# Entry
Amino acid sequence: MMIEKLPSTYASILNALVELYMMSKKPVKSRDIAEKLSINEGTVRNSMVALRAMGYIESKTGPYGGYVPTQKALEYVKMPTNTVFALDIAPPISINKLPTNLYVTGIELLDVINPFSNRALVRVIGDMKNIRIGDNVRIGLRRIVG
# Structure
C-alpha cells in the first residue's frame, strides 16, 4: 500500500493524535491535540476533515467521542522515512547543555534584519514537553577543538 506524503501541519496533527491515543486508548479530543501542539483548535478540526477523507482517522460523536487513528495513520507515523531517515541527517538539540531525543528537521529565520531581536522557527522531531521558556537551546553538535 502506497502512503502519500502529508503536509507538515497534517503530519504533526496526526503524530500528536497517535501519541495521545496510544497513551489513553480512547478517542482524542481536538482540544487535547491543539494544546499538545500549541495551535488553534479550529486548525485541528479543519485538518481532521481532510485526514478523515484520506482515511487516516475516524471520528466518534458524543460526550465520549473524539478522533481515533486508523491503521493507515499508524503505518504513516511508523514509516521509516518519517523517523529513521530524518534522524540520520538531522542535527540534534541539547537543552541546558544536556542531550535530548529532539532532532531538527527545518529552520526558518524570521526578523533577520531586526537589530533588537532575532527569531527562528525550528521544526523538530521528538517530544518537546520538557522545554521551558528561558532554557538554553543548542542546535547541532558541539565542536571539539583540540
Remarks:
- The two ends are 51 Å apart (CA to CA).
- Helices lie at 8-24, 30-37, 41-53, 71-78, 84-89.
